[in-house]
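Thread: "does anyone have the structure for this chain?"

Original post by V.I.:
We have the sequence but no experimental structure in hand. Need at least a predicted one for the grant figures.
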Amino acid sequence: MTDTGRVIQPLGWRTQRTIFGTPGPSEIVEELDQITTVDLAHVVMLVHQGLMAKDTGVGLLRTITRLRSERFRELYDLPAPRGLYLMYEDYLTRVLGAEVGGTLHTGRSRNDLKATTQAMRLRDWLLGFLDEAVRLEAVLLSRARVYRDVVMPIYTHFQAAMPITYGYYLAGVVIALGRDIDAAQHAADGLRQSPMGAGAIAGTDLPIDPALVARLLGFDEPPVHAIDAVASRDVLLRILGAASSGALTLSRLGMDLQLWSTAEFGFLVFPDRLVGGSSAMPQKRNAFLLEHVKAKAGIAAGAWTAAAAAMKSTPFTNSIEVGTEAVSGALPGLDAAAEAILLCQVLVSGARPAPERMLQRAEEGFTTATSIANRLVLNGVPFRVAHHAVGAAVREAVARGTTRLPTVVSPEGAGQIAVEAMDTASTAAAHDRGGGPGAFNGAFAAAYQALLRHRQWCSDRRERLRQGRGELADAVGGLLAGHQDRRTEGKFR
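Reply from O.Q.:
Generated one for you, tokens below.
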């Protein structure tokens, strides 16, 4: 059917393909699964409110549940000149008649329906993403605890700076990732409201019950403003922004792991299952997965920019630029961020540090120099004087071709310090102020508490969705069972 009353001619075939694409079975199932979930809740509400006869509702519910059980197989080859939803609605009208199929759209619009299905899809994606992000938190914390005593240098400006431990480094990454998870969970608050009931743009004068539909779909509440409900996709931007930030955090981890796994550093080794060879150079072991991690962040950030640009300066109302083009542009970025999480799970768990090499580089890089200066400070030497004296001692050691510092004497004669007593590991452990490696336990505890909080949030949200699905299934089953009971009573009366 192409005649809508006002418009009687369809789009041209090539234009249809450009706008609606040529969805295959998997795309049809993915889209209609969400739409028909909303339909089930909507029909239950219409019957409950007396806006739809019970027999009509039962006919719709029976057909919709059959289509869902068959994965919409009957619709795969049907023409869709105005998109999948209207093709599906036309099918219901043709099968059930206009007096039944034509009532499904009572009290709603494609605008609030589309906003709702997008929110549901984003909600499902976010829960999956956060489940995997929390798993990565657990992997990072596990490796941090195992390697908390493996001493290594930390670098600033790609130069050895101070001694830390590999476990301490990983704990820092997990704390940063935890903030990205916090941001994503905070952004998810915008998914608490169901857009259903907002209609085309200004609600409806029919006595619908949006709160009932919201509850059956696992939302916390109905829309509070119809224009905002159908016009806004800012929640998508905020979630994509948080996911992009997480991908950026992991890209920085990926950069370090890639450098540290080179032969020149020799800090880390990856097992064969996490590296690749070369088609031409037989000696190569390429940690190429880390390059994917680094690139995913660019894809995610680029998707946010593209989606925001598509939304920019559009009218604050239902808009194709916002609800269709911007959303479709955001999806590759969400997928890229999720893939970065999955890759980092196996990379972090599989990486094995080389403790002797790490310690060697920490010692060769004079990473205890700042602590030596601080020892002079404790003897009453001004820090800048101590800094100069230690720097001169390092210069002298380099000139002599040694990595061991001579005894440092303050130019002011404030005393001298026996540097031989300062080993690198104890120097790292002594840095227990300001969140240094010596305060590992506190950092680990804070990160672990964040992990528990993030895990509980995901569990609570999944339970809310489970309750909604259960209530919806009960409501649909109750209507169908009640109708069957009446038919049975009539047959045997």
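V.I.: this helps a lot. The chain has 17 helices and six strands.
O.Q.: and Residues 364-440 form a domain with the Ribonucleotide Reductase Protein R1; domain 1 fold (CATH 1.10.40).
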